[in-house]
Specification:
Keywords: Cell projection, Cilium, Flagellum, Protein transport, Transport. One of its GO terms (cellular component) is cytosol. One of its GO terms (biological process) is protein transport. This is Flagellar biosynthesis/type III secretory pathway protein FliH. By secondary structure, this protein is of the alpha+beta class. The protein folds into two domains: 78 residues; 92 residues, hypothetical protein PF0899 fold (2-Layer Sandwich). Helices cover 64% and strands 11% of the residues. The protein has four helices and six strands, in the order ββααβαβββα. Strands 4-3-5-6 form a four-stranded mixed β-sheet. It has a two-stranded antiparallel ribbon with strand order 1-2. Strand 3, helix 3 and strand 4 form a beta-alpha-beta unit. Helix 1 packs antiparallel against helix 4 and helix 2 crosses helix 3. It is rod-shaped, with a radius of gyration of 53 Å.
Length: 210
Amino acid sequence: MSWMAVHLQPQLSLTTDALLLPPHEAAAFADAVALAESLAALHAAESERIAAAEHAGHAAGFAAGRAEALADVQEQAAAQLAGQADALAHRHDETMAALEQRVVALALLVLRRVAASLPADEVVAALARQVLAQADESGRGEGHVLRLHPALVVPVQARLDAEGAALRCRADDRLAPLDCELDTPGGRLLAGLETQLQRVQAALQQVVAR
């Protein structure tokens, strides 16, 4: 027996063993051909849909992978930039702190050199006036005693008397030429040059730390 193809499609074919199609089978044959064509069209459409979905899936997967990789790179770059910014800020803070300390040290050096260029009795008299202003509202020093180096008692007393101060000077060989102490009814105050410079240094450091 041999077969003859009456409808050929890649997806579906119809064959028959008859050379002539009986009239009563014509309608059924037409329906079969129409069904075959519909099935072929449906198969083709479904194949296209599947292919498009696969392509879209691949594209979406590629885009998602690319976006994830890009996000990782951006995150790493941001972390590196943040680390570099922190390091720069830290170095800036350290540099500024060192510079501020140098400024304070330079200011103290200038004050020491100025004091060294002046007569010792003038420096001690100025120190006495400064501490006296803090301890006595009148600034005259009634009942107060200034202890200082024996060699400076006379010249410093003369300067204070000329200014109208009631402060009395007393020799104390424990003290260096630029040291002095003020005895008040409330206690003894250190008023020497180094003591005053330490106070100046503390005040300057508070200013630069703000």
